Structures are given as C-alpha cells and as structure tokens.
TrEMBL record:
PANTHER family the UniProt entry points to: ALPHA-D-GLUCOSE 1-PHOSPHATE PHOSPHATASE, FLAVIN MONONUCLEOTIDE HYDROLASE 1, CHLOROPLATIC
Organism from which the protein derives: Owenweeksia hongkongensis (strain DSM 17368 / CIP 108786 / JCM 12287 / NRRL B-23963 / UST20020801)
Protein name per the record: Haloacid dehalogenase superfamily protein, subfamily IA, variant 3 with third motif having DD or ED
UniProt xrefs under Pfam families: Hydrolase
SUPFAM superfamilies: HAD-like
Length: 225
C-alpha cells in the first residue's frame, strides 16, 4: 500500500505496514538451525581416544580456531597434548567433526522459496574442518546448491571474528548494506541473540529441541502483530 492509497481511503499509513514490508533480510546461523548438531558426540569421540578432562576447558583455543587465527594443522597439534597417548591428526579431525549430522536435503528448496521474498544470508561461527566435512558429507554439488541460495555467506574463520562480538554483526550489516531494523536473525545461542538485539536486529532465539525452521513464516507473521 502506498501513501496515495492512505490519503484516498483515510487509512493510517504507519499502522498499515505489513510484516513482509518491514523485514527484508533474513540472517541464518548454520549449526543447530539449518544443520543438526550434537556437541556431546564430539566429546564422546574425544573420550574414546583418551582425552583428558582439561580439554573441555580449552575454549580460548577453540575460539582462536573459529576466528582463523591458527591453521587446522596448528589446531590439531595444539589439542594433541590433552590426550593420554599420541593421536594422529586424521583421528582428531574425525572426532572433532562427530557433532555434525547430515545437511537435510530439503533445506535447498526451503531456501529457494524464501529467497523469492527476502534477501537471505548465512552467518556462522565455524572452522575449516567442519566446513570441509559438510562438503564431503553432502557432496560438493549439493553443498554448492545449498550455499548458492544465500546472497552472501559469512564464516567466522574467514572473517577473523566471531559471535557474540558486535563487530561481526556490524560488518555483515555494512558489507551487505542492510538496515538492522529490516533484518531478522535466527540463532540458537542466547549471547548471539542478545548482541543482535542490541544492534536493533529482530531475532528468533531458536531452540532445536522444540523449534522447527520450517515454521519461520509463522514466526515472521507474529512479529509486530
């Protein structure tokens, strides 16, 4: 509805803006939102290889890897001391990737339909091992089909920054000429959602155990209702 219609029919323009007109961009997290993950599987795999309990406390090391501050070979070498015996890099990499479940085949069609109405983007805290595994697991053709549905894909290890830091959201907004208030962000991480909200981005705190990404349209329709 344009301004002329408001004048002719004496309708309050400000209250007649629809949800579809307000939200123009959708920004997705990857893990747990578009691809199922189970982080406990990685710890179980590490334990089978003889991991020490201290490995759980190496969050700074994991974050360095997610920011691309260290290479894959450096990352695997740096977690090796947290095992009771020598573990070869391929075994460590396989254990690290255990959390990743197959990329659902229906995601491509879901995104194809969505991008007819919105600009869609991907923003993920991830790393080279995980992305290479997803490519191999899905097959390069299927992975490329999936990735091609997004206008832009933003991986933390390629950007040198990670969520929940505000700078990564600000960069995505700036690089894609997005208005925060016209952008809808979906993530399972509370801290990530909190940062996005603080920047004026509309959000959906996704709970994998009870939410379904196929309900996205329902969630959008309730926004500002």
């Amino acid at each position: 509805m344009n301004f002329a219609h408001c004048l002719i029919y004496h309708l309050p323009c400000a209250t007649r803006i629809t949800q579809r007109e307000m939200i123009k961009n959708i920004l997705f997290d990857f893990g747990a939102v578009l691809i199922p993950i189970d982080e406990s599987l990685t710890w179980s795999a590490f334990q089978e290889l003889g991991a020490k309990d201290e490995l759980k406390d190496q969050q700074k090391l994991f974050q360095k890897y997610e920011k691309g501050k260290i290479s894959t070979s450096e990352f695997l070498a740096q977690i090796q001391p947290y095992f009771f015996r020598k573990i070869y890099p391929p075994q460590l990499g396989e254990a690290w990737n255990s959390m990743l479940k197959p990329l659902p085949s229906e995601r491509v069609n879901f995104l194809k339909r969505l991008k007819k109405e919105y600009r869609i983007f991907l923003l993920s805290n991830t790393n080279e091992l995980h992305i290479n595994h997803i490519k191999q697991q899905a097959g390069l053709f299927e992975y490329k089909q999936f990735i091609s549905q997004f206008e832009n894909v933003h991986y933390s290890y390629e950007m040198g920054m990670r969520k929940p830091d505000a700078e990564i959201f600000e960069k995505v907004l700036k690089d894609n000429n997005l208005v925060a208030e016209e952008t809808f962000y979906i993530d399972d991480g509370k801290k990530h959602i909190k940062t996005a909200k603080s920047l004026g981005i509309e959000t959906w705190h996704f709970k994998p155990e009870e939410d379904d990404i196929n309900d996205l349209r329902k969630v959008l329709s309730k926004l500002h209702s």
